[in-house]
Amino acid sequence: MTHSAYVTPIVDSTSVFRADIFKGKVLFCTGGGSGICRGMTEAMMRHGASATIVGRKLDRLTQAAEELGKATGQTCIPAQADVRDPTSLREAVSQTIEKFGKIDYVICGAAGNFLAPISEMSENAFKTVMEIDTIGTFNTIKATINYVRAAKGAYIHVSATLHYNGTPFQVHVSAAKAGVDALSAVLAVEEGPHGVRSNVIAPGPISGTEGMDRLSPKSATGWKPAYPAGRLGDIKDIANATVFLFSNAASYITGQVLPVDGGAEHLRSQF
Ligand code: HXC
């Protein structure tokens, strides 16, 4: 298959949604100091939300929070926590409540990844990614659920598409993200009657991210698959889906997994 002449455009959510739809709302985002989750946070702030970004590296978080505040005119605070450690997560939640008084939306985005075949991956390496991605998501839900329930808010979990098939060198992340998808489905069913929604965004190949840098050795050789959308994904593509899924326009959407991958899932044989 050759590249399509048609390339889908990259747009800003502000060209589609009003700038004030999240005015007065508060976002709590793990992994928000960089990459996709930072982009998701920025988009929410551009529509009026305040935010707490959570991660392990305080320097990076502090700088990101300042930059996000300047770029959007909203307030963003950094909170240092490791999602594997429930105590530090609860502290990050306390800081958020102290600053903003509530939590409406949660993005469970903290994740770890590297390429390794099963035969060479240590037990601890597998366990580490399960602990960050799956148990970290559970810990984040536990630490925030009472606040999100009080706000009748919503969760978005950042997953992947690679566990829909057998993706080589990704056994840890495949198992971990399958767990994340399952957590979200149960959360949606249990918490729906309390007014809480839970959905998953499954990014495909997103350019300019740490995940893509680590995971695409083929791109270094000049190999390019013919993506149906005609291009790699952009962080804005994930940010736009985030704005939609948290907005009232998605009020009847819960328990779903939304791949945002330009159709790449259907071209797995080329990856
Ligand atoms: C093999 C590795 C490894 C590697 C670490 N390990 N890196 N094994 N290849 N490249 C092993 C270590 O040897 C150790 O096992 C165990 O993993 C734990 O490593 P630590 O460094 O002690 O853990 P920690 O400091 O907690 O680091 C966690 C990490 C780290 C996941 C290993 O690399 C990380 O946080 N990376 C940055 C986050 C990231 O990549 N984000 C993007 C995610 S993208 P032993 O046996 O030696 O003790 C994503 C999207 C997926 O998730 C979908 C994309 C299409």
UniProtKB/TrEMBL annotation:
> What EC number(s) are associated with this protein in UniProt?
1.3.1.124
Q: Spell out the CDD domains in the cross-references.
A: TER_DECR_SDR_a (cd05369)
Using the record for this protein, list the coiled-coil segments as residue ranges, or answer none: none
Pfam families per the UniProt record, alphabetical: adh_short_C2 (PF13561)
Q: Which UniProt keywords apply?
A: NADP, Oxidoreductase
Choose any GO biological process term that the UniProt entry carries and state it: fatty acid catabolic process
Q: What sort of enzyme, by top EC class, is this?
A: oxidoreductase
Under what name is this protein listed?
A: 2,4-dienoyl-CoA reductase [(3E)-enoyl-CoA-producing]
Q: Which organism is it from?
A: Laccaria amethystina LaAM-08-1
